[in-house]
Amino acid sequence: MGLFGGIFGKGDGEGKKSKPEIPWIALTSIEQLDEIVAKSSGKPQFIFKHSTTCGISRMVLNMFTSGYSLESNQADFYFLDLHAHREVSNGVAQKFQVMHQSPQLLVVKNGVVVAHSSHGAISEIALEQYI
């Protein structure tokens, strides 16, 4: 790898560990909220609310995905596009009694939200502690 390859990250990836990718489930209907509650008794359910038109939301999403390290069977991750599914976002706020924010991460266990945060504070939620 040449000098510029090292500087700009181009190369064969030798020595780099591949990070697991988040197995997102699209949250597109209010009916899925009951599914999330039911599944939360077996393993934690995470809901990531994202605004596709907000640069801060994009930055937080990138930070969240880059720090992801769980195995795919440890939790379910729901992705909510706020602009495409505003009624679902309103349903999340109502069902879980958590004021809407964007971006926002909710952790659901045993049918209730046990943690939630928004903006940069999302990165402070240690996902592993809810497994």
Secondary structure topology:
Elements: H1 3-8, E1 24-26, H2 31-39, E2 45-50, H3 55-66, E3 76-81, H4 86-96, E4 104-109, E5 112-118
Parallel strand pairs: 1-3, 2-3
Antiparallel strand pairs: 2-4, 4-5
Task: Output the keywords.
131 residues; alpha/beta; Glutaredoxin; 5-stranded mixed β-sheet; 4 helices; 5 strands; 29% helix; globular; disordered N terminus
Write up this protein:
The chain is of the alpha/beta class. It has a single domain (19-130), classed as Glutaredoxin. 29% of the residues lie in helices and 21% in strands. The protein is built from 4 helices and 5 strands. The chain has a 5-stranded mixed sheet with strand order 1-3-2-4-5, sandwiched between helices. The longest helix is centred in the middle third of the chain and has 12 residues, at 55-66. The protein is globular. Residues 1-10 have low confidence and may be disordered.
Determine the mean pLDDT: 88
* Percentage of residues in strands: 15-25%
**How far from one another are the termini?**
40 Å
Coarse structural class: alpha/beta
**How would you describe the shape?**
globular
Let me know the largest β-sheet: 5 strands, mixed
- How many domains make up the 3D coordinates? 1
Helix-strand topology string: HEHEHEHEE
Q: Which residues sit in consecutive blocks of at least 5 with pLDDT less than 50?
A: 1-10
Strands, count: 5
Per CATH, the architecture is 3-Layer(aba) Sandwich
**Fraction in helix:** 25-40%
Lateral strand order in the biggest sheet: 1-3-2-4-5
